[in-house]
Amino acid sequence: MAGIVVVFDFDKTIIDVDSDNWVIDELGFTDLFNQLLPTMPWNSLMDRLMEELHSQGKTIDDIVGVLKRTPIHPRIVPAIKSAHALGCELRIVSDANMFFIETILKHLGLRDYFSEINTNPGFVDEEGRLRIFPYHDFTQSSHGCSRCPPNMCKGLIIERIQASIAKEGNKKIIYLGDGVGDYCPSLRLTEADYLMPRKNFPVWDLICRNPMLIKAEIHEWTDGEELERVLLQIIGAISSMEDKSAAQLFSSTDCKLQTISIGAHDAFPKALSVPQ
Ligand SMILES: [Mg+2]
Ligand SMILES: [Zn+2]
C-alpha cells in the first residue's frame, strides 16, 4: 500500500471549531474560562473547568451531547475515508484531549481509521468528573521547546513518528494543521514531505513570514472541500511516483530519479504561492 502517513491536527482541521472552546461555550462557562485563562496553562485550565462543570451539576452525558453536535465540514469524513482506502496510515496529533477526540471520532464512525492519537490524556473518574492531564508532564520536567505550550510539543511527536517510520522504509508524511502549535512540527518535515496549512490561520501566517524555513512542499487549503481535493491530489501524485519508480526498477537499470522528481512537481499546478 501507499507509503504515506497522514498526520492530522484535530481542532479547526478535522472539526471546524476548537473542541475545548466548543464545550465550554455550549455549557455556558465562557466567562469563567476567560477569567481564569491568564492565571494558568490552557491544559490545566481545562481540567479546572471540568471540575467546575461537575460541581455545578453538568454530567458526562451533557458533555457527550455537546461533543456529538460539534460542527464539521461535510467533506471531512469522506476525505478521511478516501485517504484510508488509498492505503495511507492516518494519525492525529492534537492539543485537545483523548475524551473529546474519541467521543467525536466514534460518533462520526471514524475511530478505527486512525492508527494513533497523540493527545492529552482525558478520562472520567469514579465520581463522574472528566479529568484532563498534560501529554507532557511539565511538573516533572520541561520538554525543552520554547516555541510550544508546556504540556505538548508537536515537533517532538513528529520526530518520534519520523523515527518510527524510518524503520519501515521510504515513507512520506502529509501534515495538516491550522494553529500556532502546528508550526513546530511543520519545521521538522523534510523535503520528501508535504505540509497542508489552513489558509489565513495562525500556522499559515507563521509560514508566510519566512517560507524558506519550511523544507516540505506546501499546499494550502481553506475548507473541508479543498482539504479533500488537495489531500487526495497529493496522495495520487505520490502513488503515481511510486508506481513509476517501481516500474523503472523492473524495466531498466538506468537511473531516472531526476525524471521522477521533475514529474512530481509537474503534478502540482496549485502549489502554494506565499506572499514574501
Ligand atoms: Mg488546530
Ligand atoms: Zn515544539
Description:
The protein has a domain at 4-16 and 73-119 and 149-266: 3-Layer(aba) Sandwich (Rossmann fold). It has 11 helices and 8 strands. It has 276 residues and is of the alpha/beta class. The two termini are 38 Å apart. It has a 6-stranded parallel β-sheet with strand order 3-2-1-6-7-8, sandwiched between helices. The chain has a two-stranded antiparallel ribbon with strand order 4-5. The structure holds magnesium ion and zinc ion. Zinc ion binds next to loops. Pfam families: Put_Phosphatase (PF06888). Keywords: Hydrolase, Magnesium, Metal-binding. Its cofactor is Mg(2+).
Key descriptive features of the protein:
8 strands; alpha/beta; 276 residues; six-stranded parallel sheet; binds zinc ion; Phosphatase; binds magnesium ion; globular; Rossmann fold; 45% helix; two-stranded antiparallel sheet; single chain; HAD_sf
What is the fold's blueprint, element by element?
Elements: E1 4-8, H1 19-26, H2 30-36, H3 42-55, H4 60-68, H5 76-85, E2 89-97, H6 98-108, E3 114-120, E4 122-124, E5 130-132, H7 154-166, E6 172-177, H8 183-188, E7 194-197, H9 202-209, E8 217-218, H10 224-251, H11 257-266
Parallel strand pairs: 1-2, 1-6, 2-3, 6-7, 7-8
Antiparallel strand pairs: 4-5
Helix pairs in contact: 5-10, 10-11
The chain binds magnesium ion and zinc ion.
